[in-house]
């Protein structure tokens, strides 16, 4: 899939070429393709690596790490927590907007498309990049975790200030993969889902904390406004 995705930002291409040369990646993409023949898989082929289309490695200053794509029809479009314009805002995303409003005073948008954050250097990455319809976590253990580990090591190895937002138990397990460096900030909280948001996500103030960290390293803060 990746080697056929002509929309991947050119600055990621060397990384993807190296990944493509490894047998485990061939096995992973072959398994995803095989599952598409048997069931409905989200997102579509052309959107699996959507997170790498617009943001170059050098631009990344915040990584929001999701679990896996939305498993309902019309929701997943390759960006963690985001949905296309015109789609009803999922409850987890609604809670993210509530926390941004409480933290920064930014009113929630009327849509759930987060692609504007890419222009601000935010990488919206799911740890697992595909899922079967109606079956959350169905593509866990197939090899996506290995891919994500390579991504995290690559980004952390660039020796630039970087913020990671890890929400929920699954996302927080990635903290052990991320090196403890002065230029890296780990922000951990419960998942923004309605079941857990009140147990540590609300009030986490991750968005202002991320911006304060970036500014302290001489980097422009993220403008978290999405507009209407």
Number of helical regions: 6
Head-to-tail CA distance between termini? 33 Å
Please identify the structural class as seen in this structure. Answer: alpha/beta
Give the spatial strand order of the biggest sheet: 3-2-5-6
- Could you tell me the radius of gyration in angstroms? 17 Å
Helix content: 25-40%
Specify the biggest β-sheet.
4 strands, parallel
Number of strands: 6
The share of residues in extended strands comes to 5-15%
Net shape = globular
> Unreliable runs, pLDDT <50, ≥5 residues?
none
The H/E string reads: HHEEHEEHEHEH
- For this structure, the quaternary state is single chain
Tags for this entry?
228 residues, alpha/beta, 4-stranded parallel beta sheet, two-stranded antiparallel sheet, 6 helices, 11% strand
Question: Can you tell me about this structure?
Answer:
By secondary structure, this protein is an alpha/beta fold. It has helices at about 15-20, 25-40, 90-105, 145-155, 170, 205-215; strands at about 40, 60-65, 120-125, 130, 160-165, 185-190. Strands 3-2-5-6 form a 4-stranded parallel sheet, sandwiched between helices. Strands 1-4 form a two-stranded antiparallel ribbon. It is globular and about 45 Å long. The two termini are about 35 Å apart. The model has no long low-confidence stretch (mean pLDDT about 95).
